[in-house]
Design goal:
The protein has 63 residues and is an all-alpha fold. The protein has one domain: Orthogonal Bundle (434 Repressor (Amino-terminal Domain)), CATH 1.10.260.40. It has 4 helices and no strands. It has helices at 2-5, 10-17, 21-28, 36-46.
Length: 63
């Protein structure tokens, strides 16, 4: 997980991304969808490329 690799708590990430800590919890639990704006804010807070959020994900395309 990028947040833990950066040494951030949920509260720290929320602070730097300028979102509520509850939002971070809900994202991590899969209960909250992330807009592009929020994705960019999280990436900037973590100092990573936004593409890193998708590394290792498998996407199935229906034919």
């Amino acid at each position: 997980m990028l947040r833990k690799a950066a040494g951030f708590t949920q509260a720290t990430l929320a602070f730097y991304a300028e979102v509520d800590e509850k939002t971070i919890r809900r994202i991590e639990k899969g209960e909250h969808s992330v807009s592009m704006d929020l994705l960019i804010s999280l990436a900037q807070a973590l100092r990573v490329n936004p593409a890193q959020f998708f590394e290792g994900m498998k996407i199935d395309f229906e034919e």
